[in-house]
Amino acid sequence: MPRKASILVVDDEPHVLKLVKANLESSGYRVLTAEDGEHALQLVEKHGPDLVILDLMLPKMDGYAVCRRIREFSAVPVIMLTARSAQVDLVHGFEVGADDYLTKPFSVTELLMRVQAVLRRSKWPEEIMERQSFVAGAIEIDFAQHRVTVSGEAVKLTPTEYRLLAYLANNANRVILHRELLRAVWGPEYGEETEYLRVYIRYLRQKLEPEPAAPRYLLTQPGAGYMFYQPKEEGA
Q1: CATH number for the 6-123 domain, one of 3.40.50.1010, 3.30.420.270, 3.40.30.10, 3.40.50.2300?
Q2: Structure confidence at residue 4 (pLDDT)
Q3: What is the DSSP string of 168-185?
Q4: Where are the domains of the chain?
Q5: Same fold flag, 6-123 and 133-235
Q6: How high does pLDDT run on average in the chain?
Q7: What distance in Å separates the CA atoms of residue 75 and residue 65, rounded to the nearest whole number?
Q8: Of 48, 64, 67, 75, which alpha carbon lies 20 to 30 A from 132's?
Q9: Residue 193 CB burial class (10 angstroms; 0-12, 13-18, ≥19)
Q10: Fold of the CATH domain 133-235
C-alpha cells in the first residue's frame, strides 16, 4: 500500500485548522497542525512533511518569515493562505519560496485541487527532452544535469523556475500561449493564473538576461504568451 502523503497545516484560527484537517484526512492525507510559526518550523524539521499549507497572518512570525526560514533547510512545497489578494502579496510570497497561493475564503474543492496539483508537481518524473542541451547567447542549459549557466557561471533556479525555463527552451522560437505554459509547468488544473507567469518570467529575466528591463531572449507576446528566442546559428 502506498504511503499516505503528510501535510502540515499552519493557521492561528482553530476553526480553520479543524476544517482543513478534517477535509484533508477524509481525502486520505496524514495531517499535522501548528498554530504559530515556531511550532511549524519544528514540525517541518522533525517530520519532513510532503506539503505545508501556511497561513500568511500568524502571530509573532508571519507566513513570509516562516516560509523564508523553511527554505533555509527544506524544499518542501508550500501553499500560502491569505485573506489578501493584492499582486504585491502574491509576488512577495513567491519571492520567499511559496509554490502556490490560495485566497481566503476558499472552497474545500479548490483547496484539494491545489493540494493534489502541488503534490503531483513535486513528484513529476522528468519529461523526455527533445534536446540534451540548449544555447542562446551566454545562456546554456544542460538538461541531463539540470544545470543552467550564464557566461560559464552556474545560476541557481528554483524547481518552478527550471521547469518553466526548460519548457520554453524546448519550444524555442515559438510563442507559447499562457494557458499552455500554465498547464505544462503548474498542472492541468491551471490556466487563468497569468500573474504566476509574469512573476516567474521576471525572476528568470533577472537571473539570465544581460539587461532584464530590455530582454533579448525571454520575450513577451502581449496578450498571448512568451517565447524563448534562440538565434538560428545557435539552434543549428
Answers
A1: 3.40.50.2300
A2: 86
A3: HHHTTTSPEEHHHHHHHH
A4: 6-123, 133-235
A5: no
A6: 88
A7: 15
A8: 75
A9: middle
A10: Arc Repressor Mutant, subunit A (1.10.10)
Helical (H) or strand (E) element with 233: helix 232-235
CA–CA separation, 43 and 126 (whole Å): 29
Q: Which pTM was predicted?
A: 0.74
Q: Report the pLDDT value the prediction gives residue 167, as an integer from 0 to 100.
A: 92
**For residue 196, how many other CB atoms are within 10 A of its CB?**
21
Taking the C-alpha atoms of 129, 235, 142 and 148 in order, what is their torsion angle to the nearest 10 degrees? -120
Sheet containing 153-154: order of strands: 133-136, 139-142, 147-150, 153-154
Tens of pLDDT, residue by residue over 165-204, are 999 999 999 999 999 999 988 888 888 889 899 999 999 9
Q: Which of 168, 200, 198 is nearest to 184 (CA)?
A: 168
The answer, yes or no, to whether residue 35 has pLDDT greater than 60, is yes
The pLDDT of residue 220 is 95
Output the pLDDT for position 66.
95
Between strands 51-55 and 176-177, the pairing is unpaired
SS3 content of the chain, % helix, strand, coil (to 5): 40, 20, 40
Percent of the chain scoring above 70 in pLDDT? 92
Residue 57: in which H helix or E strand, if any? none
- Assigned C-alpha cell, 180: 499552455
**152-173 residue pLDDT tens:** 999 988 888 898 999 999 999 9
